[in-house]
C-alpha cells in the first residue's frame, strides 16, 4: 500500500494511537525493515542506516506531501537519558526528532554523536591560544 492510499484509508492521527505493523524497504540502503525487535510500536527509521522518510508534519499524522529522504544529522539526549536522532530532509530541509530504537546500529549512532568532536569548527592546534584569549592560562591540564 503506497503512502497516498494509506493516508486515505486511515483517519488523521491514526498512527499516533495505533501500532504500525507495516514492513518497508529502506530507500537508502535497501534493507527490509520490520517493526519487530524495535522496542517500540512506531518504527519510523531504518535500524541499519538510520534514514527515514518525510511523511509526517506532526508525529504520526502522515500529512506531509514532501516524501523526501530524512538523513540522520545529529543525536541528542532527552530528559531522563534517552537518545534521539535529529533527521534533516534532503528535499525540503525540514528537521524532526525521533527516539532511537532497541535495534538501531550502535556504531552509526556513535559516529553521528562524534561528528562535532572529530571535526570541530576551529583549528584544534590553536586551542591553547584561544583558551588564553578567553582568560585562561592556555595550559592543557589533563
From TrEMBL:
Pfam families: RNHCP. It comes from the Bacteria. Residues 22-110 form the RNHCP domain. This is RNHCP domain-containing protein. It comes from Agathobaculum hominis.
Amino acid at each position: 500500500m503506497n503512502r497516498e492510499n494509506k493516508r486515505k484509508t486511515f483517519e488523521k492521527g491514526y498512527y499516533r494511537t495505533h501500532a504500525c505493523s507495516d514492513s518497508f524497504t529502506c530507500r537508502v540502503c535497501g534493507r527490509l525493515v520490520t517493526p519487530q525487535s524495535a522496542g517500540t510500536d512506531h518504527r519510523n527509521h531504518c535500524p541499519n542506516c538510520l534514514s527515514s522518510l518525510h511523511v509526517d508534519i506532526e508525529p504520526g499524522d502522515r500529512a506531509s506531501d514532501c516524501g523526501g529522504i530524512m538523513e540522520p544529522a545529529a543525536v541528542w539526549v532527552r530528559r531522563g537519558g534517552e537518545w534521539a536522532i535529529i533527521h534533516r530532509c534532503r528535499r525540503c530541509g525540514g528537521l524532526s526528532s525521533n527516539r532511537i530504537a532497541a535495534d538501531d546500529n550502535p556504531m552509526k549512532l556513535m559516529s553521528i554523536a562524534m561528528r562535532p568532536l572529530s571535526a570541530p569548527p576551529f583549528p584544534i592546534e590553536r586551542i591553547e591560544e584561544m583558551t588564553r584569549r578567553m582568560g585562561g592560562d592556555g595550559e592543557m591540564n589533563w
